[in-house]
Every structure is written in C-alpha cells, then in structure tokens.
Design brief:
Blueprint lengths: L13 E2 L2 H5 L1 E2 L15 E4 L3 E4 L9 H26 L7 H29 L8 E4 L4 E5 L5 E5 L4 E6 L5 E8 L5 E7 L23 H15 L21 H9 L7 H24 L7 H6 L10 E3 L5 E3 L2 H6 L3
Antiparallel strand pairs: 1-10, 2-8, 3-4, 4-5, 5-6, 6-7, 8-9, 9-10, 11-12
Helix pairs in contact: 2-3, 5-6
Length: about 325
C-alpha cells in the first residue's frame, strides 16, 4: 500500500538521478521472468491494453483514515467546548474560556483542512485512473488526477524502478524533455511489491519467480513488443470498470484480495479492518466520477472487428471474449 503520486506528487522538472539510470528498464530488453498481469487488466485486445492505476486496489483506505480523523477531531472539539462551558467560573474568567476555545480552534482547523484535502484526493474524485498501452500506434495514454489525458510515445518513455518506503518498489515511466535528461511527467505501473537486492541491476540474469515488480513490467513490455497472443491465456480476471462503477460485491472482493495470501490466523485478525476499508471503498467509489477518454484517444484505440484476442470483464470480473466466435475459431 503506497499513495505516492496521489497524496504527494512525484518530483518533476529535475534531472534523472544516477539510480534511475542504473535501474532503467529498456523496452526492447527481454527479462528472464514469467510475465504477470497482477489483477491490473481492464481490457486487452490486439490494439491496446488498458490497466488500472496503482492506487485502485487500496481505494477506500485514505477515505477511511480521513473520515475517522474528522470524527475524532469533531469529538475532541465538542469535548473541549463542553468542558469549557461546564466549568464554574466568574464573570472575570470569560476571556480565559474564549482564549482556550480560540487556541483549540487554531489547533483543530489546520488539521481538519489537511484531513479534508486527503478525503477529496480519493473520494469525490475519479473511480480510477486508467492507463492505455496502444501497441498499434506505439503510444501510452495516462488518465491524470485532474481528468486530462497525457500521451507519450512508448519508445520515448524512460522506464525505471522506483523505490518507496518499507522495501517497496514500483516501475515508473518518466516523460522527458527534449534534452532526454529532464523529467517533466511521471506515472507508475499498477503493481507495487518487493524486489531482491540482486535483481535490481539484473539485466538479463535469472530473476526470482516471486519478483512480481519485474514480472508485471515484463507483462506490459511483452504486450507492447510481441502482442497479446502469448499473454491472453493467463488473464482470467478483467476488472469490470470500463464506463461503470464496480459492484458492491467486487468492492469487498478486491479489498480482501490484498490479504488473500496471508496466513489464516493473520487473515482473520485483519478481516475487521479490511471490512471497514471495504465500506469506505464503496463510499469512495459511489462519490467519484467515471473516467472518460477523449474522442482522440478512443479513435486511436479502435478495436479491429472480430479480434480474437479482445477480452473484457463480466459484471463479476470474469474474463470474456468480445468476439466469441472469432476467439473460438482462433483457439483462444
């Protein structure tokens, strides 16, 4: 779980660091790891692959923390007001009460502003921020936080590992200025996870089977370089959020998927917390708008008729063929 880029912006208008250059992931370099889609695919076909953003799986957590904090601030403020009014004081002590309340207000208001800002970063925003990888015209379309779309050429994006807190890593795409050294925009792929020290500068060496950060990058890379034919079979779940909100059931299912691999005892201990997160996820989804691609992006991403590799999700999220007869004929 990491909200870098949502709660705090990526640093831009700066030069690439030495680490970023050392950790660069090249579009034409095949990594020795099995590609993995990591529950990120919305839909895929021979023209484009659309994935969710890296915050989608944990949507609801920021809203939960913010609303609980607002409630605690409200209780604290009302308690202070009640104590101040309940104390037996003479006329000469009114100014003291007012001073106390003014001091408490000055303490609470800045915190409340930060908390409300945090709430609106996730709720009352967009349900998700999709990324489209168009292999036909070799472009990447990124739906941004403000509702605009950022487009860049696949071969011109500088991909690299990005280090987060608590030994967490992600793959970042930097869009560079004409000097090829200055970062002007940054986005991240969908998956966050751990990376072993020996695989950070792995090149073509064998990577660990559980290195899903590299595996997810390889899934995207192979789609763009080789096409969907060798990847489509592994995608069993397509997130059904294209032009619609996820169902209440899916909100619970997706949130609990974050602890699906935990030991049974830990799973049941964490379940009440994730139940609460799920409720706030529903709130965040229902108060947010659906992202909508521009007409230019939709025109550039038109799917070919009878594309056998075109898949999307059912309402429950199961993969289905967009053109069933074509898929059957092609043995997909």
């Amino acid at each position: 779980m990491n909200f870098m880029g949502l709660s705090r912006k990526y640093a831009v208008n700066r030069l690439l660091t030495k680490s970023e250059k050392d950790w660069q992931l090249r579009q034409r370099t095949r990594l020795n790891v099995e590609p993995h889609y990591q529950l990120s695919v919305i839909k895929m076909n021979s023209t484009f692959l659309e994935s969710v953003d890296k915050w989608y799986g944990w949507k609801g957590v920021m809203s939960c923390v913010a609303i609980v904090a607002i409630g605690m601030l409200g209780v604290f403020y009302c308690a202070m007001l009640f104590v101040s009014l309940a104390r037996k004081r003479g006329v000469g002590d009114v100014s003291s009460d007012l001073s106390i309340m003014l001091m408490v207000t000055l303490m609470v208001v800045p915190v409340a502003i930060i908390v409300i800002w945090t709430l609106f970063r996730e709720s009352f925003a967009y349900t998700h921020y999709p990324i489209r990888f168009n292999r036909k015209n070799r472009e990447v379309h990124v739906f941004q936080l403000n509702g605009t779309v950022l487009t860049a050429k696949w071969n011109e994006i500088f991909f690299t590992l990005g280090e987060l807190q608590y030994d967490q890593w992600e793959v970042r795409g930097h869009m560079l200025a004409p000097d090829k050294e200055t970062v002007i925009h940054t986005f991240a792929l969908s998956y966050i996870g751990s990376v072993s020290p020996e695989s950070i500068n792995s090149g073509n060496k064998k990577l660990r089977a559980d290195d899903y950060v590299h595996a997810h990058w390889e899934f995207i890379r192979r789609y763009m370089e080789d096409g969907p034919q060798n990847l489509v079979s592994q995608v069993q779940f397509c997130i059904p959020v294209d032009a619609r909100r996820e169902t209440v059931y899916l909100s619970f299912e997706r949130m609990f998927a974050n602890i699906a691999g935990a030991p049974q005892l830990l799973y049941w201990m964490e379940s009440p917390i994730f139940l609460l997160f799920s409720l706030f996820r529903i709130f965040a989804m229902r108060t947010s708008k659906l992202p909508k691609w521009t007409a230019e992006v939709e025109a550039a991403c038109a799917i070919e008729p009878d594309d056998p590799y075109a898949i999307e999700g059912t309402l429950e999220g199961d993969r289905k063929a967009v053109f069933p007869q074509a898929a059957k004929a092609a043995g997909v």
